[in-house]
């Protein structure tokens, strides 16, 4: 009686875990929640009554214009008329999947990739293919001929990786050559702790269709549920129609606050304060990782974003580790959920460093170290 | 390269028209916008900072509990644990379609039916069947065996019809007997100007699965984008997973305001003030209709909701009428968009009476009368 595709939709393991994560005794490295203190310098003044009426599907004109200015600085061909305000950037994934994916449509994704994107593409019946970032010239894309390639090139969730200039250029050339549409998800770009290439891949395309999306959840506040996308002229009108069918338009309260933060003369200063706080937290987390997981796991210190991606040297299953960690009130996200072609079990795990405070992080990582050593014995 | 289903998604004619409707010289009976003065007694105080963080997919616990109280009074078996807060009730249609509709799945709808629901069901590939409300015992449902029946029994958009007790009981019995899931959309129930049966059909089911949804767009403010659904226990967990994949959770600002309005000790008084204003507007509109369309069209005065549904006696095409009305700066929605099995052209039209003020309505209807007479000659 239910749709075929509903069989493909399991509840997200992360959502289930986040419910537990609310308990105060739990130290959570799962999820990707901003630090509570990152909101400390935000205020929420009373919004104007005009936001009560229905608004345009595309979003508030002033907000679209403001975002277009920012995107022009990144080299994207994205005028205000091709900006669509989203109810958070998760919605962009739903719209893109509706636009491209029939049962059996090939979609290329990273390995690992953002788990909630995998979930949505699978739900619409996509045949997921893992793309090989290291393949020189991205030759794989001409062979696999996906309809769509979905990537998070800057401080990726979960790996933390930031694509090099060469990797970015290669993917752009390959998409142009094979006429593969590119969907670039860029929610972490402003959380940059070390210098690295961040120029959008979409800005390097000359021919292929594209969707570029961003979020205010990481730099302003996720509770507003405000994201945006820009798209090439052939795709944009479809995305507006899909948005209208999905929820008519994005809530106008959040749009009003988002514009206010973007227009704030202290915006740059606020952001650099946030980046400094998160950089310090990353560094403390890295030191705790060294103390407690050194010799037990491999990882790279991420140049930005919110996550460490660590792989157990023993090759042990991190899902099994999570079962034991849970009993000690420590949570993280096992690696297996991030792979399109599941290496089930996975020895990798994603550790969020933005939410738990310094002391909790130290205690949580110490517990993980203990538990990993237990298995190794 | 795009999905098959995108071919089925035309832009909504209403959305295109609403863009024109923003011009001040235009008198719009299209759309279904609340009267601007209906917001006059609302305020938007500064919300608390806690709404900035991510929230639960299901929605704010306090809001869910408050809605559950209201639904219990309607006789629905809908505890707080089976309430899902939506980003407006349009989203409920998207989620229900995802849950039930594969290409070719039969979905029963009214004739006429809410156009944006037809659009979404079609987009997911539904084979739409018009249900016959007048069929005693709703025998058609046992024959057509749809997977889902979608109805707006109370002050329907566009017809304004309110199902009788017998009609409601018959549909409930037929769904139970044939095990057809019922999706009851109930955004207008509080806009009741005359006494009539409003008890939910879902409350009469004993066996069939169901989704019941409501909205705060008509009685509070659409710009908040807050709606909700309740569902039978077999469907609810799927709907939560679908909601998470669609946009993680509904914006918390709007949820905070919605709860505040529901908890307002003056809530009942506010609502009755709104109903009185709209009743007066309906009555004035009905008088204008008599003056200008009397003898030219047939209609019933709706007992609630926001729309008159009028059918030209001449049988002339209302889409053609709209082309001429547009040049005189008058808009309405032609009937053809509201039918699953299109009687294209249609002699019917939907006229919204909540948005235009009294003088504009009088002028607009006078122009429509003139234009209809022109064709008749």
Describe how the helices and strands are arranged.
Two copies of one chain form a homodimer.
Chain A: H1 13-21, E1 27-28, H2 61-73, E2 83-86, H3 89-100, E3 106-109, H4 115-123, E4 127-130, H5 139-144, E5 148-151, H6 165-178, E6 181-185, E7 210-215, E8 227-231, H7 236-247, H8 252-263, H9 267-293, E9 297-299, E10 307-312, H10 318-327, E11 330-331, E12 333-334, E13 348-352, H11 358-376
Helix pairs in contact in A: 2-8, 3-4, 3-7, 9-11
How would you describe this structure to a colleague?
Chain A has one domain: Aspartate Aminotransferase, domain 2 (3-Layer(aba) Sandwich), CATH 3.40.640.10. Helix content of chain A is 38%, strand content 14%. The model of chain A has no long low-confidence stretch (mean pLDDT 92). The interface between A and B is large, with 77 and 77 residues.
The largest interface is:
A-B, 77 and 77 residues
Structural class of chain A: alpha/beta
Strand order across the largest sheet of chain A: 2-8-7-6-5-3-4
CATH topology of chain A: the name is Aspartate Aminotransferase, domain 2
Instruction: Give the full name of the CATH homologous superfamily of chain A.
Output: Type I PLP-dependent aspartate aminotransferase-like (Major domain)
Low-confidence stretches of chain A: none
CATH class of chain A: Alpha Beta
């Amino acid at each position: 009686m239910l749709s075929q595709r509903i069989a493909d939709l399991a509840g997200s393991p992360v959502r289930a875990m986040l419910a537990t994560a609310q308990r105060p005794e739990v130290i959570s490295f799962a999820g990707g929640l901003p630090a509570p203190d990152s909101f400390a310098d935000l205020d929420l003044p009373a919004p104007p009554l005009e936001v009560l009426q229905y608004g345009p599907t595309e979003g508030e004109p002033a907000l679209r214009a403001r975002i277009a200015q920012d995107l022009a600085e990144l080299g994207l061909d994205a005028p205000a008329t091709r900006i669509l305000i989203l109810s958070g950037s998760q919605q962009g994934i739903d719209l893109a999947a509706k636009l491209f994916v029939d049962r059996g449509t090939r979609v290329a994704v990273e390995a690992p990739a953002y788990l909630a994107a995998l979930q949505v593409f699978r739900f619409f019946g996509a045949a997921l293919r893992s793309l090989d970032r290291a393949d020189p010239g991205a030759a794989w894309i001409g062979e696999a001929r996906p309809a769509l390639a979905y990537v998070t090139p800057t401080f990726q969730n979960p790996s933390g990786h930031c694509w090099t200039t060469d990797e970015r250029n290669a993917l752009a050339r390959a998409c142009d050559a094979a006429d593969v549409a590119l969907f670039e998800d860029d929610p972490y770009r402003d959380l940059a702790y070390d210098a690295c290439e961040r120029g959008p891949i979409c800005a390097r395309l000359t021919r292929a269709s594209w969707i570029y999306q961003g979020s205010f959840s990481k730099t302003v506040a996720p509770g507003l549920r405000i994201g945006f996308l820009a798209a090439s002229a052939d795709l944009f009108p479809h995305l507006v129609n899909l948005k209208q069918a999905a929820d008519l338009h994005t809530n106008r309260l959040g749009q009003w606050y988002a514009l206010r933060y973007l227009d704030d003369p202290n915006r740059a200063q606020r952001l650099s304060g946030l980046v400094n706080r998160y950089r310090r937290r990353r560094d403390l987390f890295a030191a705790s990782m060294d103390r407690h997981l050194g010799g037990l796991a491999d990882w790279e210190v991420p140049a930005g974003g919110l996550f460490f991606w660590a792989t157990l040297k023993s090759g042990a299953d991190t899902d099994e580790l999570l079962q034991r960690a849970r009993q000690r009130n420590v949570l993280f996200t096992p690696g297996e959920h991030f792979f399109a072609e599941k290496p089930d079990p996975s020895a990798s795990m994603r550790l969020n460093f933005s939410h738990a405070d310094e002391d909790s992080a130290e205690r949580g990582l110490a517990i993980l170290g203990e538990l990993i050593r237990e298995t190794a014995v």
